[in-house]
Amino acid sequence: xxxxxxxxxxxxxxxxxxxxxxxxxxxxxxxxxxxxxxxxxxxxxxxxxxxxxxxxxxxxxxxxxxxxxxxxxxxxxxxxxxxxxxxxxxxxxxxxxxxxxxxxxxxxxxxxxxxxxxxxxxxxxxxxxxxxxxxxxxxxxxxxxxxxxxxxxxxxxxxxxxxxxxxxxxxxxxxxxx
Length: 178
What we know:
CATH topology: hypothetical protein PF0899 fold
CATH class: Alpha Beta
Structural class: alpha+beta
Largest sheet: 5 strands, mixed
Strand order of the largest sheet: 2-3-1-4-9
CATH architecture: 2-Layer Sandwich
Distance between the termini: 35 Å
Strand content: 25-35%
Shape: globular
Helix content: 10-25%
Number of strands: 9
């Protein structure tokens, strides 16, 4: 029950952050299939905006974009990467070119020619939780014979620096289910 409650709260947090990121206005170009240049260009846009390259740049990508990137040697070869994300470990999070990539299944337009992905610095987005007002309960209802867990909290996300976020429109339609 604890893991289920934690998963529910985490999905809500992710949803709020993705919604806040969607307010960003910088883009790296038109829709195309994922390439390394797509992400290095977004990183260059951030650099041109004086966003520090301090290990806090994240990329939220679709499963299709991850599949396209996995087909390139620069993304998978031990000559270029230290993380062995294809050999095990956390399959949906890895580091490449100083950026943390997070594969996310709930991006807008997933599986279409208009998937919306993001490259951003962590300080460009804010998320807060009222931990003092958090309520967590677990119990058992004998009359109905079930256990329950409930977690109630107030939280929210906000775009803090538009210059620290780049939207990428990705064409993931060729890898969508038929």
